[in-house]
Write a structure and sequence with these properties.
11 strands; 7-stranded mixed beta sheet; 4-stranded antiparallel beta sheet; 223 residues; alpha/beta; Rossmann fold
Amino acid sequence: MIPRELVAVAAVPGGDELRLFRRGADHMIVLDRNELMNSRMSGSEEALATMTCERLADARAPHLLIGGYGMGFTLRAALGALGPDARVTVAELVPEIIDWARGPMAALTAGCLDDRRVTLVADDVAAVIGAARGGYDAILLDVDNGPDGLTRAGNDRLYSAAGLAAARGALRPGGILAVWSAAPDPRFARRLGEAGFAVEEVVVRARSNGKGPRHVIWFGVRR
């Protein structure tokens, strides 16, 4: 077996250390002993984008906010599904993630950060949401392993009642809050509904070939 090589390390503000590993052509981003991302498993992150875009089919020039760049799976899928007049804002808190995207993972990034439809914001997505007033057609959140913050405790506020109220205020009427999770969370689904969203829960596979672990995406439509 090809040994795993440590490529780079990054500190998460208010959290622990992220490590980027490479094994052959594959890349992994790891927190402590938890593998957060793997370049071989992109299916559910891509589905976060494509299934959101399907639900925005009637929007003429939609504006999407993506919270967390990660390995770029969601951004690339969104760009492939959206038309030329769409806009995508990407909020990424950890600057090294973008350095890795333009450096050791440049082949995986495939130039998506340079697409003219993309605006990159080096900030916490919670702050970006808090500053918005009905400006987004969709907000896509994949900043942690789900509604229970793993990467940093500060992520919990995104999924709290106050955080969901802020997201609702940042969306246009009928806009979509799409949330990725590694596992089901009935309490969060209930909280999402109580925050004024019509909730749909979808189970998707981790791999693009329909295999791998089951992940969850919630689609909350602003009522």
